[in-house]
Write a structure and sequence with these properties.
By secondary structure, chain A is mostly helical. Chain A is globular and about 80 Å long. Chain B is an alpha/beta fold. Chain B has 2 domains: 53 residues, no CATH class; 320 residues, 3-Layer(aba) Sandwich (Alkaline Phosphatase, subunit A). Helices cover 36% and strands 15% of the residues of chain B. In chain B, the strands form 5 sheets. An 8-stranded mixed β-sheet of chain B has the order 6-5-7-1-8-11-4-12, with helices on both faces. In chain B, strands 2-3 form a two-stranded antiparallel sheet. In chain B, strands 9-10 form a two-stranded antiparallel sheet. In chain B, strand 15 and strand 16 form a beta hairpin. In chain B, helix 1 crosses helix 3 and helix 10 packs parallel to helix 11. The chains are: A mainly alpha, B alpha/beta. Chains A and B meet through helix 10, helix 20, helix 24 and helix 25 of A and helix 5, helix 7 and helix 8 of B.
């Protein structure tokens, strides 16, 4: 009875804590919120309208929104059709159409795959990446609300090649403290892991609070699964005291979490009660794993910072700079640039019941998103959000752009990579897209200005069999075009539309013409021009 | 033992910009420049700049999977745990190694064999990370790997060739530039018998140059529309890449250019080709080269497997050391032979040995390391380190010291957190004495 009562109290306390945080109002319409966002930005940041960049043209908008939403570039037909379309709502309509395309889910699933796996502890965690990509693509396409998706990651168990939601736990090898840190970073944008070893130097979090949060995750672990036909891993949870003691690895389930004694690392440490640091909602020691993780997912997804973290990331990806930077460092001790604007969007996202498509549609409808790009400013005194920013393409976006520009088919050996034979780790690593990602990939949580090009990247674009081979005049896309198009300006225009999704300027046409005269060999000159376009900085960015 | 210490002190005090550490200054002032007043670490710190100017280099021969110490540099023929492996004499009286390494035995006078390596990490992935970084993996800090730190600290940024090259394909958990950035990632060579990936220009030289000129002239529109910095950066990298592939130094990747006699002396196989390429690279100013040998995870049929594996690496590794010596390069080139851990003294029912990080061995040569010595010892059964345990931070600290790099140097991680090149540990002084 005593035990029952204390559990009940804990549940009541939990429910109260859940109830006290930001509540959702009625759903707001995207265009209305977009207008509010722009008005609020103007009030908060811009002294006069002259400071802000003008709206970008249709071709720029089209390529930008294709890359941002579906991770690919439009075909020449799309560019022409969109430019000629006279309807005033064509931009909003385009965004909605792209959000309905299955490639939307794939594009953003790959983004989150990179967010999660660039922080992996060991490379073997990559065995879970195909399942994550497949499952999360589907969830995003079905527009499963972000809080449901987050809860899925937090409460996951099972074979990592069957259940993509195990990805965060697998990437952290089922380790209690590491999983805790990643869950807080990804879903709340709070960097509480610094408090793992000492009280946080710049934040209010105490070391005990980190370990109280970790106390939601002691009963999870990762163990290898070996059958004659497959090698995989399983995220497991156990409420029983396992006979094997938890070793240094820290990735076997244990009943409770202990905060290590800094004076005496060999001591058992202090047993911690599961307690959510932002609201002090807590559970009893002894609470089963399923309940712990379920309650944590509730505390976390109903907290105000849950929406802020998602809004900040999405805004940063689309507009080129975050309200908070780096994107995964938000929270009560940070100051947002344009805090009121950030709150308008965050409240809208809460009111939409965490509808990710709503969020993208709303941001894409803002003037802030639709402005021309200006260089990424690094000086502290510059005015943020007065222009969009040229963003380097993520590896998957660039790979898709290459395939589209050169009409290359995607070879897909064992892409789904689910259990069973085939699609094993090594095979997965040989997949051309994976190989490309090894050369061009970067951690999307890192500040984008720190992402620099590398020599192997340049070499791959200039000389690889895939790119150079796709640019031969005697086969593939160029052979067809050379046969169909006799007029040189028309040919140049076609190449620009294919690669940069825009028409060449007068100056560019003149330069291309002069180059053709200099070379004196049409086929060679066209090959060279196509090579140059694919190797241009513009191709590797979205402007 | 005293002579080399004096020598270093002499050199370091003559140099004009040798002093980097405040405690060295203090020691000098207090001790009135007397060599005896300087502690060992002061001398090493003072050597740093001098060594940097000498073009120090490092070649890591990596035995992936965890090489058996009993079948390589720490045979135990007198004990059941030693199995069928015999010990043979070497060029140094009193030092015996396993009969699988007859060529290494001949260069033992250059080798410092550490038989008392000890660690707790018996998992391949984590141990591979540990023995490449000196740190265990963490989610929040992406440490630069050994080769990246060396390239950053003493690499030649002006060279057309990269400072850090890995031969034998990508090795999971061996790391890269980490928070130092992609500039410090290794150039990965799949096979030393083929040119590196994408380095064959996609057009002949004149046409390639013409394309590059066209590229430069066609980026104006994007530059004017907010992309100026991005375009400038991209042009810079493209130029470096282009310079590299058109450099006469690219010949360095073609081992066929070596005389037949030289190639034959290294023996045959991928690893032999890798060792030869490593020598060619270091000769051309590359700072860090890693050559991979795979398959050392001998859970079964250990004795035959390790004999074959040694057959792949013994002659090439020994020849590499001798070749560097003959060319006068060994003094400034540290060669490291190691894997992620050792193997169990107990022979399992399948004739294999399992993972054993508690007591294993590493061999070093060159770079100022005194050869012809064995450091540390294990019990007759091989189960315990009985003398002079050497931890992973000890080893890393020693390697960086040898290369003239201050292990206390703090890099800033992405999160603005200072991270030392090595955390803890002490230099293994016997290596240099």
């Amino acid at each position: 009875m005593q035990r029952f009562r204390s559990t009940l109290v804990a549940i009541l306390a939990g429910t109260l804590a859940v109830a006290t945080v930001a509540h959702a109002g009625p759903r707001q319409e995207s265009p209305a919120v977009a207008k509010q966002v722009d008005a609020s930005l103007a009030a908060e940041l811009f002294a006069s309208q002259t400071e802000v960049a003008p709206q970008c043209d249709d071709a720029t908008f089209l390529r930008r929104v294709w890359l941002d939403v579906v991770g690919d570039i439009p075909a020449p037909e799309h560019v022409i059709a969109f430019s000629l379309d006279p309807s005033p709502d064509k931009r909003e309509r385009l965004v909605r159409e792209l959000l309905a395309d299955p490639q939307y889910g794939v594009n953003w699933a790959r983004y989150w795959r990179d967010v999660i796996f660039y922080r992996r502890i060991e490379d073997r965690a990559l065995i879970a990446s195909n399942a994550l990509e497949a499952d999360l693509s589907q969830q995003l396409n079905e527009n499963v609300p972000w809080d449901k998706i987050a809860a899925g990651f937090i409460t996951a168990t099972g074979d990592v090649r069957d259940n993509g939601s195990t990805a965060i736990i697998m990437a952290q090898e089922g380790r209690t403290e590491e999983t805790t840190a990643e869950v807080a970073r990804i879903f709340l944008g709070v960097q509480i892991q610094c408090a793992q070893c000492h009280d946080h130097p710049y934040d209010r979090w105490k070391r005990g609070q980190f370990h109280e949060l970790a106390a939601f995750f002691p009963r999870i672990g990762v163990r290898p699964v070996r059958t004659p036909t497959s090698r995989s891993f399983q995220v497991v949870a156990s409420d029983r005291q396992l006979r094997i003691a938890k070793n240094d690895d820290g990735n076997r389930p244990t009943p409770e979490h202990f905060m290590p004694d800094l004076e005496d690392p060999s001591a058992k440490g202090t047993q911690m009660q599961p307690k959510f640091f932002l609201t002090s909602a807590k559970l009893d020691v002894g609470t089963p794993d399923a309940k712990r993780r379920e309650m944590l997912s509730k505390y976390l997804t109903r907290n105000e910072w849950f929406a802020v973290a998602a809004v900040n990331r999405m805004w940063s990806e689309l507009v080129g700079a975050g309200f908070y930077e780096p994107v995964d460092d938000v929270g009560p001790d940070r100051t947002a640039r344009a805090p009121k604007t950030m709150e308008i969007l965050s409240q809208g996202f809460r009111d939409s019941d965490y509808d990710v498509k709503w969020l993208i549609e709303t941001i894409a409808a803002t003037d802030a998103y639709q402005r021309q790009s200006r260089p990424r400013e690094t000086e502290a005194d510059h005015i943020p959000f007065a222009a969009n920013v040229p963003q380097p393409l993520r590896a998957d976006q660039l790979y898709n752009a290459l395939l589209s520009a050169l009409d290359l088919p995607e070879t897909t050996p064992n892409r789904p990579g689910r259990g069973g034979a085939g699609g094993g780790f090594r095979q997965q690593q040989r997949d051309p897209r994976t190989q490309f990602n090894l050369t061009f990939g970067f951690d999307p949580s890192e500040p984008r200005e720190t992402i620099s090009g590398s020599i192997p990247q340049s070499l791959a674009m200039m000389n690889s069999a895939q790119v150079a081979g796709g640019l031969r005049a005697n086969r593939g896309v160029l052979s067809g075009l050379l046969e169909e198009i006799n007029d040189n300006d028309e040919m140049f225009t076609e190449l620009y539309l294919r690669t940069l999704s825009r028409q060449p300027t007068e100056d560019e046409l003149a330069r291309a013409g002069a180059y053709l005269d200099e070379v004196g060999n049409r086929k060679q000159a066209i090959e060279d021009l196509a090579w140059v376009l694919v190797n241009s900085a513009e191709f590797r960015h979205r402007r | 033992m005293f002579a080399p210490l004096q020598h270093h002190t002499h050199v370091s005090l003559r140099g004009s910009r040798v002093v980097r550490r405040r405690d060295f200054l203090k020691a000098s002032a207090a001790g009135g420049l007397a060599a005896s007043a300087l502690s060992w670490t002061d001398v090493l710190a003072a050597r740093a700049d001098e060594l940097r100017d000498r073009g120090m280099a490092c070649i890591l021969l990596w035995m992936s999977g965890g090489p058996s110490q009993f079948e390589t540099f720490s045979p135990k023929p007198g004990h059941a745990n030693g199995g069928e492996t015999k010990a043979i004499d070497t060029s140094v009286a009193g030092i015996q190694i396993a009969d699988n390494l007859p060529h290494m035995a001949k260069v033992a006078n250059e080798l410092a064999i550490i038989r008392s390596m000890t660690s707790k990490e018996g998992n391949h992935q984590r141990a591979t990370y540990l023995l490449h970084h000196g740190y265990l993996p963490m989610a929040s800090v992406k440490h630069p790997t050994l080769g990246a730190n060396v390239a950053d600290q003493i690499g030649n940024a002006a060279s057309e060739l990269p400072s850090f090259v890995q031969i034998g394909g990508r090795l999971p958990n061996s790391g890269g530039g980490g928070f130092l950035g992609v500039d410090y990632d290794p150039l990965i060579i799949q096979s030393a018998t083929k040119p590196p990936q994408n380095t064959t220009p996609s057009a002949e030289a004149n046409r390639f140059a013409r394309r590059m000129r066209l590229l430069e002239s066609m980026q104006g529109d994007f530059a004017a529309m907010g992309g100026a910095q991005v375009v400038a950066d991209q042009q810079k990298v493209a130029k470096r890449a282009t310079d590299m592939i058109h450099s006469p130094k690219m010949e360095v990747f073609d081992i066929e250019r070596e005389p037949a006699a030289v190639r034959e002396a290294y023996g045959s196989g991928e690893f032999a080709a890798g060792c030869l390429m490593a020598r060619r690279l270091v000769e051309q100013g590359v700072t860090f080269v890693e050559v991979h040998s795979r398959g050392w995870d001998t859970h079964q049929d250990n004795f035959n497997s390790v004999r074959n594996l040694c057959g792949n690496v013994d002659q090439p590794g020994a020849r590499l050391i001798a070749d560097l010596k003959e060319r006068g390069m060994l003094d400034r080139t540290l060669v490291i032979w190691m894997g992620e851990f050792g193997r169990t003294p107990q022979i399992n029912p399948r004739g294999g040995r399992d993972h054993f990080p508690k007591a294993f061995n590493v061999a070093l040569a060159g770079g100022g390391v005194r050869g012809g010595q064995v450091i540390g010892a294990t019990s007759d059964s091989g189960t315990e380190v009985t003398d002079r345990p050497v931890t992973i931070p000890d080893l890393f600290r020693s390697v960086y010291h040898t290369l003239g790099i201050d292990p206390e140097y703090e890099n800033m991680s992405g999160g603005g957190r200072p991270i030392k090149i090595v955390d803890g540990g002490e230099v293994v002084e016997e290596l240099f004495s």
